[in-house]
Write a structure and sequence with these properties.
Distance between the termini: 51 Å
Number of strands: 0
Shape: rod-shaped
Order of helices and strands: H
Helix content: over 70%
Radius of gyration: 19 Å
Number of helices: 1
Strand content: under 5%
Amino acid sequence: MSGVGAPIAILGIILPIYTIIDMVETAENVWSDSCVAAIVDKELS
């Protein structure tokens, strides 16, 4: 952040919010992958 001239203090605000958003995105990705796997398994069985 300091390399691009952004204030370092803003990281204290951005990182906790981004962590929650990242957790939601990861959960959505795992859910969609498991749905596709279940559909493929059902069609191949």
